[in-house]
Amino acid sequence: MNKEDFFIKQISNSKYNGDDGAFIDGYVYSMDAFFENVHFKKDWMSLKQIAYKSMLVNISDAIAMNAKPKYALISVAIPNSYNENDLKALSSGFKKAAKEFDFEIVGGDTIENNKLDISITIISKTKEPKFRNSAKINDFICYTGKLGSCKKDLETLLNGKKIKKSSKFMTPVLKADFFYEAAKYVNASMDISDGLFLDLEKLSKASNIGFEFIKDIKEEVGISGEEYEILFSCSAKNLKKIEDIAKKHKVKINIFAKAIKGSYKSSFENHHFKN
Amino acid sequence: MNKEDFFIKQISNSKYNGDDGAFIDGYVYSMDAFFENVHFKKDWMSLKQIAYKSMLVNISDAIAMNAKPKYALISVAIPNSYNENDLKALSSGFKKAAKEFDFEIVGGDTIENNKLDISITIISKTKEPKFRNSAKINDFICYTGKLGSCKKDLETLLNGKKIKKSSKFMTPVLKADFFYEAAKYVNASMDISDGLFLDLEKLSKASNIGFEFIKDIKEEVGISGEEYEILFSCSAKNLKKIEDIAKKHKVKINIFAKAIKGSYKSSFENHHFKN
Prior knowledge:
2 copies of one chain form a homodimer. By secondary structure, chain A is of the alpha+beta class. The first copy, chain A, has helices at about 5-10, 45-65, 85-100, 150-160, 175-180, 195-205, 220, 235-250, and strands at about 20-25, 25-35, 70-80, 105-115, 115-125, 140-145, 190, 210-215, 230-235, 255-260. Chain A has 2 domains: about 5-125, CATH 3.30.1330.10; about 140-260, Phosphoribosyl-aminoimidazole Synthetase, Chain A, domain 2. Chain A has 8 helices and 10 strands. In chain A, strand 1 (about 20-25) and strand 2 (about 25-35) form a beta hairpin.
């Protein structure tokens, strides 16, 4: 067991834990950290891009649970060297996300620190939350978009080279409109943040299922983290409906496995960037 | 204007900002950071004490708004060097607070970092929230407890010396039971985190009032931060009721000013510890 899992187990056996967010009384509460030298290096992206991505990775949790962000709290630790323009750039990234996804920044905390460390709590609303624990035997297992580029781009950055501005590693491309429409046909869902293989392991554990792979998933696809695509399961009956909705929203759907009795364990470690 | 104020102004003109937490639909949402070398140094306190205090400073916001903590989200950045015992010590501090104040830790994030940085969001419930903007002319202005020791103890720590285990700087003493009973007689309230003078400035601004001091507040009392006492205002009529409740709970009440027309500006800077 890694330290993260150990700590989470220690700290809480809450029934609300285990999904991308905690669903309580119509709301989904999700919180994610986005820290310098842990999730990004400052010369990789502009301050606006950093702030914007820190929001997107949080919003991704809400979307994967079929919840719409309503409010955000932001705790930002800011280096003393930042000037007013830097602060403006940062806040413009936060505000961009709030505007785009139509929610309000209602509070938080600002402190001085040796590096830029952001933690965000998103409060989202949903009438029909989606969880990780409700995939059913014979469900098709699917993900949106294309996986693999984030790992490649991360490696490029770690090698001191530049990546394209359009890179999903720089700016995750969330599939909000598609998923809010498709969710009613979905049994279980979560976002792909740790990499498909590791996230499948979580889905397997939560839903108590194994997988029979229809398509071969290459290693560079399965261990690419921070993709923020949606991993979901649905019945054979609903698959066509979801495919139609995906087509309408120009979202690629990959049907790559079926849920079977059993369990699934990834043989790969967490591939988040660590300093 | 300091950078914190500038950034907060940039990021949000939400009507929910400006109190210890954001009151929305029966809930209060508050978020505070508790970072190594910003709020504490690791040789000052045990990991359990650090985790416990990080919770208390957040719960303090809820209490000051007359809200009862129900759920917490915790984002913890943990040094790689921490072993299982360290993680257990940390989580025991978080759990101690959750047990004592009867709320549930429902989620968050755990990452690896070069130092221990904690951000916490507390979700609290209240039927009668208290704000900073409702102090009225002629109100008495009061605070609970004794102010000054936290600044002294912080200085002692910064000088490399030890402080008592019973120090309020180590373990804030929240006046929850008193305030939940007294709140209905209170007009405006907030916790004292930046120091009485600076927090009075915030109260003045929010309620659009000035202060006529009944008692002289010494500098070492007025600029002592992280006290986590409650600053509140009440009518002359309600003062006696509040004093009776305070007596019952063995809480000291200091009546030190009256609200008058005008405004109040502290001549002191923020005295939070900065590295």
